């Protein structure tokens, strides 16, 4: 189909082939697995045995590499957040190639950016960010967020299967 990443151009194809399918989230999953393996190797492995440990030790020892990771990660996250302004306000301005590429890589790029920004912090650097993320008030919020994450698909399915009429969205909502 000709799917668009714009919320205003969402079709059934978008929901069926992109949003609900597990392979749409496989790249963020694998990026998270790789980040977890690298962090585990950094904290537990021996450099003589583990190539991952040697890579992580180089990152740990070189501030310039960590700085590049921070900047690259932050730029990726900001781009992936703010690009939606253009995608939603000018949905017909983008080619089919862009739409397919964006839908294919956007989630992975966002998660990659987050991992590049957070991994050095988890390695023990950037104490200001580390202290902020370790703030005790985040514990109940994290549990609440995880609970909502676990429950929301059931709620969405229950709600959509119990409506009498379909839901739709138009660009001219409220205009007579």
Topology:
Layout: H1 12-19, H2 26-44, H3 51-61, H4 63-89, H5 96-122, H6 127-133, H7 138-161
Helix pairs in contact: 2-3, 2-5, 4-5
Task: Kindly describe this structure.
Helix content is 70%, strand content 0%. The protein has helices spanning 12-19, 26-44, 51-61, 63-89, 96-122, 127-133, 138-161. The two termini are 32 Å apart. The radius of gyration is 20 Å and the shape is globular. It is mainly alpha-helical and 176 residues long. α4 packs antiparallel against α5. The mean pLDDT is 87. It contains seven helices and no strands.
Quick gist of this model?
This protein is mainly α and 176 residues long. It contains seven helices and no strands.
> How many whole angstroms does the radius of gyration measure?
20 Å
Q: How is the main sheet built?
A: none
How many β-strand stretches? 0
Give the overall average pLDDT. 87
How much beta, percentage-wise? Answer: under 5%
C-alpha geometry: globular
Residue runs with pLDDT of under 50 for 5 or more positions: none
Order of helices and strands: HHHHHHH
Individual helix count: 7
Bin the helical content.
55-70%
N- to C-terminal separation? Answer: 32 Å
What structural class do helix, strand and pairing data support?
A: mainly alpha
